[in-house]
Amino acid sequence: MSWSVRFWGVRGSIPAPGPDTVRYGGNTSCVEARVAGQLFIFDSGTGIRPLGLSLMSEHGEKPIEGHILIGHTHWDHIQGFPFFLPAYAPRNRFRIYSSHGVGKGFEKIFREQMNQNYFPIETGDMASKLEFLHVNGPFSVGDVRVETTFSNHPGVNLVYRLRHGDRSMVYLTDHENYQAQVQDRDEFSVKQDRIIEEFCRGADLL
Fold it and tell me: CB under 8 Å to 147, separation ≥6 — which residues?
């Protein structure tokens, strides 16, 4: 049961290149996981650009199929997608998962950031097969089980847990602890913090 995880972007808000960020890198959110022969990409911040270049080099002319799990559509989590080179090759296929955004579906938000007012190339110009899937509960990708819950963050933010065999990993970003935020141990805050705690419990990697 092989697992591998690689961090391509760990920053929030905006990319932060320069000598102060050499150790962990300056790109925004993007983490690659390979589990049971499946390619998972968590978020499409600017880190997805070097990931895309690496995938193209690795696969050559062979097709790439991957699953892009978006926590939420704040800009630092999607701003690298227009620069994801594998999305422009017709032989490739990507399924993109997330929850409904605030007031808009996440597919519409994705497509709007590549509106000609903001970017010279539109999502429809990407030649790969793109499929946008709304997450309504746990689902499976091959032999990998994908579970979700919500974190406490303005708007909507999904937390993901991958399970395969007796191992699991949790991808959790942009979470404000309920009790610390309200500085009170009211029943609701305790309950919500416990949901996150239980969701993460026993994970091999968080």
Answer: 138, 160, 161, 163, 199
